[in-house]
Design goal:
Layout: E1 4-5, E2 8-9, E3 13-14, H1 15-20, H2 29-40, H3 44-49, E4 54-55, H4 57-71, H5 76-80, E5 82-85, E6 88-91, H6 104-114, E7 120-124, H7 130-138, E8 143-148, H8 151-164, E9 169-173, E10 185-190, H9 221-231, E11 234-243, H10 249-258, E12 262-268, E13 274-280
Parallel strand pairs: 7-8, 7-10, 8-9, 10-11
Antiparallel strand pairs: 1-2, 3-4, 5-6, 11-13, 12-13
Length: about 280
């Protein structure tokens, strides 16, 4: 990539060679393609179709830095600054959890259960605003209250609201239900922290905010706190939807039933894993 060295002109960087270099760093081909596509403002299909395309020195250098960051375990979304969720391009950064496709299950369940009539819905611990914005885009007649105790997370969520021109989401700062006041809701959703403090999976997630991942009581503390506070803010027949971790469904279903919830049901993600629980306040 140097202009000249020892009298020989260096070979220009080409798309195919740059992508092939990913394996040397232990980076997947898919992540390498997405990284280079973002840098070149091209699609993956364009990269694959034109692997002989030359890449200027600055873009090649930025790509090399990005590959190293990926090799160090940093999420691709933090490097590109964007993550797609529910077909929405969301701005993300180290202050928020990277939205996962599995969390779209909460959106699917809520849309299916509540229909299209005007509703008031809360998204607790909204982070980048992924759940709230997906619901708001699909249901313009709904009023969505999105809460988070992190001011940095709410700044990112506000950016996404403006970029996507979605106006039926209201952001409030505070922990779980606290910013909801005495309002009543048709549904309360959350993807809270649910990983136990000593869980080995945390090593691979070290770049993401631990407060968005780890919960006390073996991962159940925030799930149960949300269930308790939601009970006094859900309208009769109101819906509670929460994402949870592997192996947590049996205890969580029992705890929700003991708190007085009815129709407590566990839902599986596309991989067949227990992923979410729904419950109705009588």
């Amino acid at each position: 990539m140097d202009a000249e060295r020892g009298g020989n002109v260096a070979e220009p960087a080409r798309v195919g060679a740059l992508l092939a270099a990913a394996s040397q760093n232990g980076v997947s081909r898919l992540d390498a393609e997405l990284l280079l596509a973002a840098l070149l403002q091209a699609s993956r299909a364009q990269l694959i179709a034109f692997e002989e395309r030359e890449v200027d020195a600055l873009a090649a250098a930025m790509y090399a830095v990005g590959l190293q960051r990926l090799a160090d375990g940093e999420p691709l979304a933090y490097i590109t600054g964007v993550r797609e969720f529910w077909s929405l391009p969301l701005s993300v950064g180290p202050g928020v959890l990277v939205p996962r496709p599995e969390t779209e299950l909460l959106v699917e369940l809520c849309l299916a259960r509540l229909g299209e009539a005007a509703r008031t819905v809360a998204d607790l611990g909204t982070g980048s605003g992924a759940i709230a914005l997906a619901l708001a885009r699909e249901r313009p007649a709904w009023r969505i209250i999105a809460t988070d105790r992190s001011a940095e997370a709410l700044q990112i969520a506000a950016i996404n609201c403006r970029r996507l021109r979605i106006g039926n989401v209201e952001l409030r700062q505070g922990s779980w239900c606290e910013p909801l006041g005495d309002e009543q809701f048709d549904a309360i959703l959350s993807n809270p922290p649910y990983i136990a403090a000593q869980h080995p999976a945390l090593a691979a997630l070290r770049h993401e905010p631990m407060e968005a991942l780890v919960a006390g009581d073996g991962g159940f503390a925030d799930l149960l706190q949300i269930a308790r506070c939601a009970a006094v803010r859900l309208r009769p027949g109101g819906l509670l939807l929460m994402e949870h971790g592997a192996g947590q469904s049996t205890r969580l279903v029992g705890d929700l039933a003991r708190l007085g919830y009815q129709q407590v049901t566990c839902h599986h993600d596309l991989a067949g894993h227990d992923r979410a629980v729904s419950a109705v306040w009588p």
